[in-house]
Hints:
- The protein has 354 residues and is of the alpha/beta class.
- The chain has a domain at 50-150 and 210-232 and 267-339: 3-Layer(aba) Sandwich (Rossmann fold), CATH 3.40.50.
- Helix content is 36%, strand content 23%.
- It is built from twelve helices and 16 strands.
- It is globular, with a radius of gyration of 21 Å.
- It starts with 7 loop residues before the first helix and ends in a 15-residue tail after the last strand.
- The chain binds S-adenosyl-L-homocysteine.
Amino acid sequence: MRDGLPNPEQLISEIATARATTIADYMAAANGHYYATRDPLGAAGDFTTAPEISQMFGEMVGVWIADLWSRAGSPAFRYVELGPGRGTLAADALRVMARFGCTPAGIDLVETSPTLRAAQLARIPNAEHHDEIDALPDDAPLIIVANEFFDALPIHQYVRTIDGWRERMVERQGGALAPVANDTPADDAVPAVLRDKPEGTIVETAPVAAAIMQRCAFRLARQGGAMLAIDYGYGGPAAGDTLQAVKAHRFVDPFANPGEVDLTAHVDFTALAASARSAAVPASPLTTQGDWLQRLGVDARLQSLAAAAPARADELKGQRDRLVEPREMGDLFKVMAFTAPGWPAPAGFTGDTA
Ligand code: SAH
């Protein structure tokens, strides 16, 4: 455990003593502790992500990068990943990119967890770590990948009460933590198109995600390059409570055991696109993970992997289905790309509407 991090009991009492703890502060404190103290991924952990399900996922990201890079004139660039987990996606993508002669001048990983930093270095020994976007080198175009990164960032929640919109806070009630409506009016925090929703409606905002997206976009505008964001999410604005907690592959109460469960919220991709546009970086249409993977050629990749290992054909087909099929991850997960002015249009988004 990293020095100075509170244990779960201390976290609960910190949250309880600060009367006005927003959902965002609660999420930031809980997730900071959670990610710093474990590797949460895989069957033995709390949740599994697309790159941990199949090598085909990272390989399609690699194909996407190699294609874009080649159409951009094969410039020197840096591979950047935000919240790279175990480094599995990066390893699979970089291996495929190398086959196209697409070798980055540097591999820069933005990661706060010391545990996951160690796991990433074991997979990619020549990677450099950074605490934040602002610390990334500025000597070359950046190709930035973020899979299941934005969903871990803190959100604010607002609830419509009989007296109007209020921010939702976390408060100790007896021995447990529970969400309560703040006293101060917060109508201005809620997008105008959602303000007339009925009593009880919850609306979320994600200013940290917006700020990180804008910083990435400023870099793309200045240095060139592109960014690929993949996450479970939607095209907003939309109402709804999407805060969820997962422990050992099961949904649990987000207000029990802070720091010991994975807290996430669905990503509003329309809000990310607006952040990018504010830095003069255009966003692609929003597409589903299933459609995007199929357009990048996941089915051809499945065939060649299965032909090389016939005994694994069923297992490989099962992995492909988990990533692509609408009833699995295919529809819930979305993909959006952001490209620097002057860079070519990214592959995989044709046919979608903005
Ligand atoms: N992209 C990986 C891991 C997703 S889990 C995969 O697809 O398997 C979320 C990742 O984001 C973890 O690596 C976690 O440590 C990292 N993370 C969470 N909050 C972060 C923050 N504020 N800054 C940097 N990394 C963060």
